[in-house]
């Protein structure tokens, strides 16, 4: 999943249904609604990617955790903290 963290490039016009009161207040506060929607959507996409990665790698993570529980951390004798 080597995808860029930022979503740059051409933009696509999209219809989004938002609370009229929320949009009005955002306008009064000088908030760019399109930018705020993109920021929120990017955060949700990032969260979904992370969840998918964790699920895809669950077996390897569990295997490593089992190993460290049984054997300790590799090179632990060299740790200075």
Write the layout of secondary structure elements.
Elements: H1 20-28, H2 33-56, H3 58-71
Describe the structure.
The model has no long low-confidence stretch (mean pLDDT 91). The chain has 81 residues and is mostly helical. The two termini are 34 Å apart. Helices cover 58% and strands 0% of the residues.
Q: In summary, what is this structure?
A:
With 81 residues, the protein is mostly helical. 58% of the residues lie in helices and 0% in strands.
Defining key terms:
81 residues, mainly alpha, elongated
Indicate the proportion of strand residues.
Answer: under 5%
Calculate the mean pLDDT score and round it.
91
The largest β sheet comes out as: none
Count every helix, treating DSSP H or I runs of 4 or more residues as helices.
3
- Give the overall shape, derived from the CA principal axes: elongated
- What's the order of the H and E elements? HHH
Q: Quaternary state, please?
A: single chain
Terminal CA distance reads 34 Å
Radius of gyration over all CA atoms, rounded: 22 Å
Structural class: mainly alpha
Binned, the helix content reads 55-70%
Number of strands: 0
Q: Low-confidence spans: pLDDT under 50, at least 5 residues? A: none
